[in-house]
Every structure is written in structure tokens, then in C-alpha cells.
Specification:
The complex is a heterodimer of chains A (577) and B (590). Chain A is α/β, with parallel strands linked by helices and 577 residues long. Chain A is built from 19 helices and 12 strands. Chain A has 2 domains: 313 residues, Up-down Bundle (ABC transporter transmembrane region fold), CATH 1.20.1560.10; 236 residues, P-loop containing nucleotide triphosphate hydrolases (Rossmann fold, 3-Layer(aba) Sandwich). In chain A, helix 5 runs antiparallel to helix 7, helix 6 runs antiparallel to helix 9 and helix 14 crosses helix 16. The longest helix of chain A has 51 residues. Chain B contains 19 helices and 12 strands. Chain B has 590 residues and is an alpha/beta fold. Chain B is elongated, with a radius of gyration of 35 Å. In chain B, the strands form 3 sheets. A 6-stranded mixed sheet of chain B has the order 6-7-8-3-10-11, with helices on both faces. A 4-stranded antiparallel sheet of chain B has the order 2-1-4-5, with helices on one face. The chains are: A alpha/beta (577), B alpha/beta (590). Chains A and B meet through helix 2, helix 3, helix 5, helix 7 and helix 8 of A and helix 2, helix 3, helix 4, helix 5 and helix 6 of B.
């Protein structure tokens, strides 16, 4: 039920809309009572009062008028309810997205992107029914029966008692069944997310499956997973059906009881016909909002299950505690970055990914990180970019602790060329402009030229406007890499981080880029995470990492002279076989 | 309408279940009509104070209807959902079956987020088609006819046509109006949802790049706008659904008033109350029709999006006859021309290759030189039109894609690892492999030690797209996978491009002996052990510029030799001294 509280708290953002929904709903209830009264009067006037059509035509006109008003109230309530849902969905979706962005790549890399996307889309959409149907209905279900009871009791104590006596069964049933269904709903949402993740995995790996002749075998797996999802869904729905049965049963049975009980008293002249008819018309309406609540409870339950995941993400603490007022970066920052016994371990890991690493990035100098995969090179880069915060030691820039500054301000000073650049579904120019959204086309072209991408782009049918698909399906690995380098050129930042930047390039490009990077590095601080030693040997300092520690450090010549691990690495590259 | 017809056809195997659902639904509604009509009759009759015996049968009837409605409702829900979800489950498989032959050639223009939306959300949307679009009109028809019959038979013939008008307005008028109004927003909603899905997937998967470049703000704004657009479209729909609720309320009351006006002069006033209450109850059968019409639009759009994929023609058609069984694994390519589309520049021109069984050929060239195109053609992911590719003397077109790919072990630069355990990822290559065979393959790919160092060994989950592993680890797994497949033709497409120097050397050290025992096509931009190759083909922009053995090409001092020169400049003298393999360059810096 804690989730309900979080959801209702969130609902404060649409408070005025909710008030309108409830107000219009209550108005509809009053008009409903009026309508039942008028209808019973007309019939009574003719049946026992002996009136002709002319005698009741006035009442019939009023009846129609009331119907028009009631239709208007229903219309307004529905529009208002959907508006509430829309506001809430937008609010929660943008909050969730903002929080994911704030959690950063260190978080999303450890989650399934299909599942996260599903939460952002279908998870949020599942809240629609909660806000637009369940929440208004719950207030209506409380208000309407009270209005009707208030009208019936003074007229007929016995019918009132029947209604009053049966009423608590409905919420009771619903709570019982609701509690039972809750866990199943969570399971159903999980099954849906799992199915989504599996499909995304298969869709993205379809080519691989085909080349192993396993794509046909997936038909069976998909059938199985889809069937599993069906079973879980039906499990949830079976509970819904059961509650539908009880609600229907209680409602129709008590209408039947009232009809018989009222009929018997009419027989003995204990009750006027008009009042009996009025009660009979109102009796089903008494149960209607409660019955709808039953149906909508399950619509709302899906939303509550989705909300669990949404609030879990929203409540994941941010890695970077926002400093109260971050001072702006000094304008004369020379980007002298010092790692001071920096350690880091992931929350779910015992061992340190980085262990007491100290080094200094001198302005204008190039530092290269060398070492086997898993040695901690990428983690150091993430720490430098503040996607992660050290769990021990500290990082300073020009003597200021890095944590003094706003992470976004700090990243302004960094151009990053990642190992596997992500290409967005947009034009090539827009993809390059990631480095600087304000860049003119000329600047984009300049950056592409520097990255040796320009000649490739010009051969494309639409040049820089060519759209590239998800994961750059239409660009080769080398081209994607060069595009990432073009982004870095456009960034024009004092600190450059190259994460295996040249590993995908053929040496002609590599040579091009090496020269360009040399130009770019001239007045800049560079950190290279390299496997290709050709980019390393000119570095001002090389750190050889192993298991999160610095094993050796020095220049290429010094390290070769040491005759340690670095020398062995160079020989591996040289291939002394 | 053709789309709806096809949707119905898909449900054909379940027709008897669907009929049962319709009948049960009718029974549920009729229980309510009977309950209200009889109840009204009881109190009207009782008001005239007859003997209780007059009411006996009616009271029994009221009790029956009062009890049975809940039971009917339960059965109806159960049957209709059971059949629908079985159907949806089949549809997902059906969709995948049709999608599978299209990959990868026909799917390059679809984003996987978009395809995901189709297979999950769009199929989910079809639930509405079967539960809420198909059944209700039939239920309304049966209920309407019976209620009209009761009106004409028991009360007054004139009431039937009058009520029919309101029934028709409710059954056709309101749904048609809502359908017309909702058509545009429905389409927009489906489209907006697809776009939002894709946009959010971009943001989530590309977050590293966005965060590093401080561009999360822009994507936040973009996605907020996309989300707002979806919500605005949904708000348009809210106006329409509100209008529909309002119109239905008006119609019910309008019908009651109209029938009373007609009945008061004509019918025994005893029946006025039953007429009014029966009428109100009967509309329960018509209310779902407007919802049906609302869903018609969205299910139609969803179905069209599904059929768009299902109807796509695969670029490659499997032949009718069974694949030939090549006696030997000899690859012969002659005069091969290929372009991805009519407008695109040719990716391969006048390509010749002869790879005898047990032979080893290397193709070298810069990115974009056409090397990967060749791998795509060899696997029959695309079909060639000019020239010939023969495997074991049989044209590639005569093979079924599956059979052909069974003959090849392929390692590409960008390998997909599935979100499963390491063992399951390896087993993909040969589901029946023994543990020993899996370990042997991992050992050959130099990944066994690493796997053992993981807390759960071969049972470790690799994470989505293998993101919990480094590039080198991923690639070594991919190599192990291809080795496990143990196919006669080994294709290495830049297999070691992402490995660090030490690992690359180790992996190549493992691979090269393997290539000696099997027919190998190696595609690379690095000269790794190329001395042992029977032939080296140098590709530039789809054309062969040079071919020969390592020694021949060096002696010729052409493009290949030149590449080595550039390569050597990258290395310092003392390193070059003991070099036996090199970076290879292809296009000369201009």
C-alpha cells in the first residue's frame, strides 16, 4: 500500500483536475437521482393517477432536460479525468527520464535497456488507467452510494437496510481479492518486461542467430515465453473474473431481493407504487460505481505494479550528490587533474575495480593507460568523467576537489571518444553535432575532415543529411569510430579522453587521426585508454594497470628499459613469435 | 477492411470458442434484461394488490436471473480471454516466423525499438480486436432482436420500430461517429508511441555518449516533447470518448421517453414500468459497440504495422528443391558485381576468388572496401545478381540459407551476445555440445581461464548485448562460439579488430593452427600471419587492386607493400626490428 501513497502523493500535481472530476461526478449522481424520481413520477401518474399523455408531457420534458445536463457532466468528468492522467504521465515520465540521466551510464549499463525503455513507455502508460479511471472512481464509489442511500432511507427503511447490508461486501471482496491479485500483477508486469527484453535481444541478435542456424529454434523459445506470459496474465485475470463474479452476484441478487421484498409490501399496500419504482430504478445504480470500481481496481492494479518499478528507479540514490551551490569552474582552469589514492568498487562487488591509484594529468601532456581488459582503465575514465564517484581517495583539478563542481560543468571540459560510440537515429550532421549542438555545417564538415570521415560522407546519397539508424546499422565500425572522433573535434575541450579510439581503424586512417590528434593534443590534456601501442609510445607518461593497480609507470623508453610487463606487451604487439 | 478480414482469418481456428464467448455474453446481458423487466412487472402488478399466487412464477424468474447473471459473466470473461490470449501467443510466434526470413537485409531500415513495439504493444492492442471488436456486434444483434420481439409480442407492435431506431443509433450511429472522429488520433497515437519508444531507447542506450557530451538536456527536451505529443493525442481521444458516453446516456433516456410517449395512449399502463426498465437494461448490449469502434481504429493501425512486416518480401528466396550437398568445400567466385540498391555505388565489382578445399585466402582492405559485403553475400543475407558464387560446384542460390550457413563458422567484428549465460551463448553454435567440447572451444579461443575466474564460471550472465564483458572478452567468446560450431568453412571477418595486442596475438596464435585444417576466408585490415596464406586479395572500393602471396606482393612493391611502409612508420625502429606481423593499410593517405 506504500505504493498507493507514493502514487497519491504524485497525484498532487494534478489536484485541481481531480477536484473537477470528483465535482462533476457528484453532480452526475444528483442528476441521476432526479432522473429516477421523474421517471417513477411519470409512470405512477399514468398508471395509478390516470393521467393522459398531455398530463405528463411537462414532466417528460424536464426528464429530457435532466438527461442532457447529466450527459454534459459525464462528458466533462471524462475529459477532466484524462487530463489528470496526461499530466501525471508526463510528470512521472519526465521525472523518470531526468533521474535516469542523472544516474548516468554507470547505472544504465548495468540494467537492461529494453526493460528500462519498457518502464518509460508501457510502465508509464499503465498508470493511465490508475489516474484516469481508478482514482476518480474510488471517490465516486464513496459518494454516489451515499447520495442514493440518503435518498432511499427516509423513503423505505427495509430497502435501505438491504443496500446498506450488502454494500460492505463489495469493498471487502475487493480488498481481499485485490491483495491476492497484487503479487500476481507484479509478476505479470515482470513477465511482460521479461518478454520485451527477450524480444529485443532476439531482434538485435537476429543476424547472429541466423548465421548459427538458430533463428528457427527461436520460434519455439518465443512460443514458450509468450505462452508463459499468457499463463501469468490469465492467472491475474482469473482473479479479476472472480471478483467480477462476486460483484455481479451481490448486485443482481440484492436487486432481486429488493424487487421481491418491495413487491410483497406493495401487495399489502404498505408502500406507494411511485416510491417502490423509484427504489427499483435506483437500486442497480447504487451498485454501479462499486462494480465499476471493481473493474477499474484491476486497471489501477496494473498501474500500481508498474509504479513499483518506476519508484524503485526514482528512489535509486544518485552517484553524484548534488552540491548545494556548485561554484562555477575557474575560467583560467588549466586542467591539471590529480588522482590521489583513488579507489572504487561497485556496490554489488567485493573487490575494488580501482585500487589506490595515484597519478597526475599535466596540462598539455598525454597520459596513456595500458593493460589487459578488466584492469580498470575504463573505470578510471568513468571516474574522471564523474559517471562514478571514488569510494576512496580523491580527484582534484588545479587543487580543487572535483566534487566541488557541477558534473555537467566539468564535462564541458571533456571530449570523449568511447570504445563503442552510440549513433543516434538522426542525420550524420546531427550525430556529429553531439559534440557541439551550436556548430555550423562548416564546422561539422571541418570536424569530419579532421576525423577522416568527410570523404566517406560525401559518397553517401544525402551527404551530411543521411540518416543513420540505430546502432549505426548503415555505418561500418570504423566509420562510427571516426564519427565519434569528429564529435570530439567539434567539442574543442581542454581534456580529451580516448577510449581505444583508434582500435577499429585501419592504419591509413589511424595515421591520419594520429596526426590530427597530435594537433588537437597540442594545448590539451589527453588521457588515452589504448590497446594499440602505436598511439601510446609518444605519450608523456604511460601507466600500466593490472587488477586495478598501477603496475608500472614511465615513458615508453623508460618502461622498455625496465624490461617488465610493458616490454612483454610491446613484444606481443611486435609479435616476437 | 482487407486488414480486418485478415485479422478475422487469423482467429478462424478458434471459432467455436469465440461462438461460446458470444453466447455467454448474451446470456449475461439477457439475465439483466429479464431481471429488470420482471421486477418492474412484479411491483406494478403488486400495486394492484392481486393474490400472491399471481406473482409466484415471476418471483422465481427474478431469483433465477439474479443468481445466474454472475455465473454467466464469469464464464464469459473466462472463455473470451482464454481464447484471445491463446491467439495472441500464437500471433507473436507467427510474427516472428515472418520476420525471421527478412533479417538482416529487409530490416536495416527498422529500428529494433520500433520492431519491439510491434511485437509487444501492437500485438497486445489486437487483444482489443478479438475481445472488444468482434464479439459485441454479434451480442448486440441477438439481444436487440429478442428485446424487439418482446416489445412487439407483449406490448405493442409500434414500440419495436421506435426502439429499433434508438438501437440503430446506438449500435451504428454513435460508433460510426466515434470511429470517424477517432480515426486520426488513433493513427497518431500509434505513430507517436512508436516514435517515443524509439526515442527513449536511443536515450537509454546512448546515455554514455549523451552524458559525456552534456547533451542529456537536449534529449530530455526531445523525449519530453515526444511524450507530450503522445499525451496530447490521447487527450484528443478523451474528448471523443467523453462525447460517446454522453451520447449513449442521452440515447437511453431518449428511448425511454419515446417509448413512454408511444405506449401511454396505446398500452395497458401496467406495462409502462416493465417497458421503461427493460429498455434501459437492453442498452447494456449496445454500449460496448462504441468502445468497439474506438478500438477499431487503433487495432487497425496496429494490424497494419504488423502486416507491413509480415507482407515484406524477403530479399532472398530459398529454392524449392532441397539444397545440394557439396562433396567438397571449395569456394569459387567469378565476375561478381553487387550493389545494395540501384542508386548505391557498387560495393563489389568484378570480383574473382578461388578458395580450394583446405585453402586459405585473405581479403584485406580499408573499412568500406566491400569486405563485409562479401561476407553478407556468402551467408545469403543478400542475393547477388551478376556473376557467380559456387560452393562445392553448386551455385549459392541453390542452397537454402539455413543449410548454407550450417557450412560456415563466421566471426564478425560486431558480435551479438545474448542476455543469457556464457554457456548458453556458446551452446548457440551447437545445442548438443558436451561440456568438454564447450570447454575445449573456450580454451582454443583463450577465454577459458577468464570464464573460470568469474564467480559463476560458465553459468555467468553476460548482460544485455554482453555489456558486462569487455570488447576483447566478447570477441573471444564469439570466436569460441564459431570454433564450437566446427563448420567446414571458416570465415573470420575482422575477428580480432577489437582485441588488445596481447590477446590478439594469443587468439591468432590459437586460430592460425585451426585454419590449417580447414578452408578459411580471412578478412582483415591487419597482417596477421598472412605469410601462410595461399592468396591475399587487396580490395579498394569494391575492386581488386592486387592479389598474390605475401612474398609475391612484397616483391611487387605495389599497394600491399606501400601499406606496410605506412604501417612501419607507425612503429618505432626497435619495435619494428622483431616484427613478424603488422598493421596493414590499404588506401594511401591523399
Amino acid at each position: 500500500m506504500a505504493r498507493d501513497r507514493r502514487l497519491s502523493q504524485a497525484a498532487r500535481h494534478a489536484r485541481s483536475g481531480i477536484r473537477a472530476v470528483v465535482g462533476l461526478g457528484a453532480l452526475g449522481g444528483v442528476l441521476l437521482v432526479a432522473q429516477a424520481y421523474l421517471l417513477s413520477r411519470v409512470i405512477d401518474d399514468v398508471f395509478l393517477g390516470g393521467q393522459t399523455l398531455n398530463g405528463v408531457v411537462g414532466l417528460l420534458a424536464v426528464l429530457l432536460g435532466v438527461a442532457v445536463l447529466r450527459a454534459g457532466a459525464v462528458w466533462g468528468a471524462e475529459v477532466a479525468a484524462r487530463r489528470v492522467a496526461g499530466q501525471m504521465k508526463q510528470h512521472l515520465r519526465t521525472q523518470l527520464l531526468a533521474h535516469l540521466f542523472a544516474l548516468g551510464p554507470a547505472y544504465t549499463r548495468r540494467e537492461r535497456s529494453g526493460e528500462l525503455t519498457n518502464t518509460l513507455t508501457n510502465g508509464i502508460e499503465a498508470l493511465d488507467a490508475y489516474f484516469s479511471e481508478y482514482l476518480p472512481q474510488i471517490t465516486l464509489a464513496a459518494a454516489l452510494p451515499l447520495i442514493i442511500l440518503g435518498v432511499i432511507f427516509p423513503l423505505d427503511l427495509i430497502s435501505g437496510a438491504v443496500l446498506l447490508f450488502t454494500m460492505p461486501f463489495i469493498p471487502m471482496m475487493m480488498i481481499l481479492i485485490g491483495l491476492w491479485a497484487e503479487s500476481r500483477n507484479v509478476r505479470q508486469f515482470e513477465a511482460l518486461s521479461q518478454m520485451s527484453a527477450h524480444f529485443l535481444d532476439v531482434l538485435q541478435g537476429l543476424t547472429t542467430l541466423k548465421s548459427f542456424g538458430r533463428s528457427q529454434a527461436q520460434i519455439k523459445t518465443i512460443g514458450k515465453i509468450s505462452d508463459e506470459f499468457r499463463k501469468v496474465t490469465l492467472d491475474v485475470l482469473r482473479v479479476a473474473f472472480l471478483s467480477a463474479f462476486f460483484l455481479e452476484f451481490i448486485a443482481t441478487l440484492s436487486v432481486a431481493i429488493i424487487a421481491v421484498e418491495v413487491g410483497l409490501r406493495l401487495l399489502h399496500g404498505h408502500l406507494p407504487f411511485q416510491e417502490a419504482l423509484f427504489i427499483l430504478i435506483l437500486a442497480p445504480e447504487f451498485y454501479l460505481p462499486l462494480r465499476s470500481l471493481g473493474a477499474k481496481y484491476h486497471a489501477g492494479a496494473a498501474g500500481r505494479a508498474a509504479a513499483t518499478r518506476i519508484f524503485d528507479i526514482l528512489e535509486t540514490p544518485l552517484p553524484v550528490q548534488a552540491t548545494t551551490v556548485a561554484p562555477p569552474l575557474p575560467s583560467d582552469l588549466r586542467v591539471r587533474v590529480q588522482f590521489d589514492a583513488v579507489s572504487f568498487h561497485y556496490p554489488d562487488s567485493e573487490t575494488n575495480a580501482v585500487q589506490a591509484v595515484s597519478f597526475t594529468l599535466q596540462p598539455g601532456q598525454t597520459t596513456a593507460l595500458v593493460g589487459a581488459s578488466g584492469a580498470g582503465k575504463s573505470t578510471l575514465a568513468f571516474l574522471l568523467m564523474r559517471f562514478l564517484e571514488p569510494t576512496g581517495g580523491r580527484i582534484t583539478v588545479d587543487g580543487h576537489p572535483l566534487t566541488n563542481f557541477d558534473p555537467d560543468d566539468w564535462r564541458q571540459k571533456i571530449a570523449w571518444v568511447p570504445q563503442a560510440p552510440y549513433l543516434f537515429a538522426a542525420s550524420i550532421a546531427e550525430n556529429i553535432r553531439l559534440g557541439n549542438p551550436e556548430a555550423t555545417l562548416d564546422e561539422v564538415i571541418w570536424a569530419a575532415e579532421q576525423a577522416n570521415l568527410h570523404s566517406t560522407v560525401t559518397t553517401l546519397p544525402e551527404g551530411y543529411s543521411t540518416r543513420i539508424g540505430e546502432r549505426g546499422a548503415r555505418l561500418s565500425g570504423g566509420q562510427a569510430q571516426r564519427l565519434a572522433i569528429a564529435r570530439a573535434f567539434l567539442r574543442d575541450a581542454p581534456l580529451l579522453i580516448l577510449d581505444e579510439a583508434t582500435s577499429n581503424l585501419d592504419p591509413a586512417n589511424e595515421e591520419h587521426i594520429r596526426q590530427a590528434l597530435a594537433r588537437l593534443a597540442q594545448h590539451r590534456t589527453v588521457l588515452i585508454i589504448a590497446h594499440r601501442l602505436s598511439t601510446v609510445h609518444q605519450a608523456d607518461q604511460i601507466l600500466l594497470l593490472d587488477g586495478g593497480r598501477v603496475l608500472e609507470r614511465g615513458t615508453h623508453q623508460e618502461l622498455l628499459a625496465q624490461g617488465g610487463s610493458y616490454r612483454r606487451l610491446v613484444h606481443a604487439f611486435g609479435g616476437a613469435r | 477492411m482487407n486488414t480486418l478480414h485478415r485479422l478475422l482469418a487469423l482467429a478462424l481456428p478458434f471459432w467455436h470458442w469465440m461462438t461460446a464467448a458470444v453466447l455467454l455474453s448474451f446470456a449475461t446481458i439477457f439475465a439483466s434484461v429479464g431481471l429488470m423487466g420482471l421486477s418492474a412487472w412484479i411491483i406494478a402488478r403488486a400495486a394492484l394488490q392481486p393474490s400472491i399466487a399471481v406473482l409466484g412464477i415471476a418471483i422465481a424468474g427474478v431469483r433465477f436471473f439474479g443468481v445466474s447473471r454472475g455465473v454467466f459473466r464469469y464464464l464469459e470473461r473466462y472463455v473470451s480471454h482464454q481464447v484471445t490470449f491463446r491467439l495472441l501467443s500464437r500471433l507473436r510466434v507467427w510474427f516472428y516466423e515472418r520476420l525471421e526470413p527478412l533479417a538482416p537485409a529487409r530490416l536495416t531500415h527498422f529500428r529494433s525499438g520500433d520492431l519491439l513495439a510491434r511485437v509487444i504493444s501492437d500485438i497486445e492492442t489486437l487483444e482489443h480486436f478479438y475481445v472488444r471488436v468482434v464479439g459485441p456486434p454479434l451480442v448486440a444483434l441477438v439481444t436487440g432482436l429478442i428485446v424487439l420481439g418482446i416489445m412487439a409480442a407483449f406490448f405493442d407492435p409500434l414500440l419495436a420500430p421506435a426502439l429499433l431506431v434508438f438501437f440503430l443509433l446506438s449500435a451504428l450511429g454513435v460508433p460510426f461517429l466515434t470511429w470517424r472522429l477517432a480515426q486520426a488520433p488513433d493513427r497518431d497515437i500509434v505513430a507517436a508511441r512508436g516514435e517515443l519508444n524509439a526515442g527513449l531507447l536511443d536515450s537509454v542506450q546512448g546515455l554514455s555518449d549523451l552524458a559525456a557530451y552534456g547533451q542529456t538536456g537536449q534529449h530530455y527536451a526531445q523525449n519530453s516533447a515526444l511524450s507530450q505529443r503522445l499525451i496530447d493525442q490521447q487527450a484528443r481521444l478523451a474528448w471523443i470518448s467523453g462525447l460517446q458516453s454522453a451520447l449513449n446516456l442521452l440515447l437511453i433516456l431518449g428511448a425511454v421517453v419515446a417509448l413512454l410517449v408511444l405506449a401511454i395512449p396505446r398500452v395497458d399502463p401496467l406495462y409502462l414500468a416493465p417497458i421503461a426498465l427493460l429498455t434501459m437494461a437492453a442498452f447494456e448490449a449496445f454500449l460496448p459497440l462504441t468502445i468497439a469502434a474506438q478500438h477499431l481504429g487503433s487495432t487497425h493501425a496496429a494490424a497494419e504495422r504488423l502486416f507491413e512486416i509480415v507482407d515484406a518480401e524477403p530479399t532472398v528466396r530459398d529454392p524449392e528443391q532441397p539444397s545440394p550437398r557439396p562433396a567438397r568445400c571449395e569456394l569459387k567466385i567469378e565476375g561478381l558485381h553487387f550493389a545494395y540498391s540501384a542508386e548505391a555505388a557498387p560495393a563489389l565489382q568484378d570480383f574473382h576468388l578461388h578458395l580450394p578445399e583446405g585453402g586459405r585466402v585473405a581479403i584485406v582492405g580499408a573499412s568500406g572496401a566491400g569486405k563485409s559485403t562479401l561476407v553478407n553475400l556468402l551467408q545469403r543475407f543478400w542475393d547477388y545478381e551478376q556473376g557467380s558464387i559456387q560452393l562445392g560446384g553448386h551455385e549459392l542460390r541453390t542452397f537454402h540459407g539455413e543449410d548454407l550457413r550450417a557450412l560456415m563458422g563466421v566471426v564478425t567484428q560486431r558480435t551479438h551476445l545474448f542476455n543469457a549465460t556464457i554457456e548458453e551463448n556458446l551452446r548457440l553454435a551447437r545445442p548438443g555440445a558436451t561440456q568438454a567440447e564447450i570447454v575445449a572451444a573456450a580454451q582454443q579461443a583463450q577465454i577459458h581461464e577468464f570464464i573460470l575466474s568469474l564467480p559463476e564460471g560458465y553459468g555467468t550472465w553476460v548482460g544485455e548485448q554482453g555489456t558486462r564483458l569487455s570488447g576483447g572478452e566478447r570477441q573471444r567468446l564469439a570466436i569460441a562460439r564459431a570454433l564450437l560450431k566446427d563448420a567446414p568453412l571458416l570465415i573470420l571477418d575482422e575477428a580480432t579488430a577489437n582485441l588488445d595486442a596481447v590477446t590478439e596475438r594469443e587468439v591468432m596464435g590459437a586460430i592460425l593452427p585451426l585454419t590449417q585444417t580447414r578452408t578459411t576466408l580471412m578478412i582483415t585490415h591487419r597482417l596477421v600471419g598472412l605469410e601462410g596464406m595461399d592468396e591475399i586479395i587487396v580490395l579498394q572500393e569494391g575492386c581488386i587492386v592486387e592479389r598474390g602471396t605475401h612474398a609475391e606482393l612484397l616483391a611487387r612493391q605495389g599497394a600491399y607493400w606501400q601499406m606496410l611502409q605506412i604501417q612501419n612508420q607507425l612503429l618505432e625502429p626497435e619495435v619494428v626490428n622483431d616484427i613478424t606481423y603488422f598493421h596493414l593499410t590499404t588506401d594511401i593517405p591523399h
